[in-house]
Amino acid sequence: MNGPSKVYLLWHVHHQAEEDGVVRHFTEPDDFWSDEEAGDDVKHLGTYSTRDAAQRRIERARELPGFADEPDCFYIEEAVIDEDHWTEGYVTEPGASA
Q: Under a CB-based contact definition with an 8 Å cutoff, are residues 15 and 40 in contact?
């Protein structure tokens, strides 16, 4: 029997400068964080059948304007097809921003 089917989602984050003017970037291969409320721009570059295909896309994207400015801020997320992630409901608190 085959294991679960996987895909690889490729993300890039263009980080906005913090209040002190410093721009923080990813520092580890699996480092992924963003602060969209502070202006970070998260882009989904594609979904790939293999990690190697996603990695090849990173190499091509690093040559493009914008992506070349933050060449280490790519993240490959492994996902299992047909797998539930949010399995319980949620409560919105009054006054909380979405």
A: yes
The structure tokens listed for 45 are 């570059």
For 33-61, what is the mean pLDDT? 86
**Angstrom distance (rounded) from CA 66 to CA 74:** 12
Residue 34: its pLDDT value, please?
60
CA 33 – CA 26 distance, rounded (Å) = 8
Which pLDDT score, from 0 to 100, does residue 51 have?
95
| DSSP line for the chain | -----EEEEEEEEEPPP-TTSPPP---STT-----GGGT-EEEEEEEESSHHHHHHHHHHHTTSTTGGGSTT-EEEEEEETT-----S---PPTT---
Q: Which two tokens mark 61?
A: 């994207």
Instruction: Name every residue whose Cβ is closer than 8 Å to that of residue 9 and which is 6 or more positions away in sequence.
Output: 44, 46, 47, 48, 54, 76, 77, 79
